[in-house]
Amino acid sequence: MIALDPWAWAALGLAAVTIGISKTALPGGSILAIALFAAVLPARTSTAAMLLLLMVGDVFALIAYRRHAHWPTLLRLTPAVVLGLLAGFAFLALTGDGVVRRAIGVILLVMIAVTLWRRWRQNRADAVAPARGGILLAGTYGTLGGFTTMVANAGGPVMSMYFLATRTPVQVFLGTSAWFFAIINLVKVPFLAGLGLFEGQVLLMDAALAPLVVIGALIGLAVAKRLDQRLFDRIVIVLTVLGAVYLLF
């Protein structure tokens, strides 16, 4: 197993609980786990280690919200996400860790600004936002979501911004996200394995942290039932901003 100081294990433990909560209650919250893993482990190692723990959380997200997914949204996003995944794989293979982190931070901040601007414009016009976004919106967010999830498992905040931009209800938000990332994370495994990132030490560390993901997922299920739509949106935006600033600086 990877030799780490006690404080580092504490940080990874907190990150594992956060992963569970993010999967069942606060999709944007995964950015905190990304920051903690990146602070303790080398960037590429943290990407691989987090992916396996995210897949543990995916199981609970699917159990809880699988029936709430909106499949037309997933199909609309698919072509752009595939393009983003391929671009992210090339970027990960050719670029240094520092450049990757800063690029993701910039993307997240831009997506937040665009989302808030869209919602402000809609409110000013007293327009009711459509339940689902158009092809251009899906293409933009889908490509960026695929890119960021490949290079740093940071697709959650980007896709959260997409669902917020389309004013998706909480349950549909969580159900669609659950299927989206369960599928995407499975697709990412052979890519990261091809880069040699799933070492024995990483697997042992994940085995030790997996029970904490389960605990976090159960906490998230209890919290999600009490979340108001406005509070949910605000929490996702705040967590995304904090994570983006951390990755940027």
UniProtKB/TrEMBL annotation:
Its main location: membrane. Keywords: Cell membrane, Membrane, Transmembrane, Transmembrane helix, Transport. Pfam families: TauE. It is a multi-pass membrane protein. InterPro entries: TM_pro_TauE-like, TSUP. It is found in: Cell membrane. It comes from the Bacteria. The chain crosses the membrane at residues 7-40, 46-65, 77-94, 100-117, 170-191, 203-224, 231-248. Belongs to the 4-toluene sulfonate uptake permease (TSUP) (TC 2.A.102) family. PANTHER family: MEMBRANE TRANSPORTER PROTEIN YDHB-RELATED, TRANSMEMBRANE PROTEIN YFCA. This is Probable membrane transporter protein. The lineage of its organism: Bacteria, Bacillati, Actinomycetota, Actinomycetes, Micrococcales.
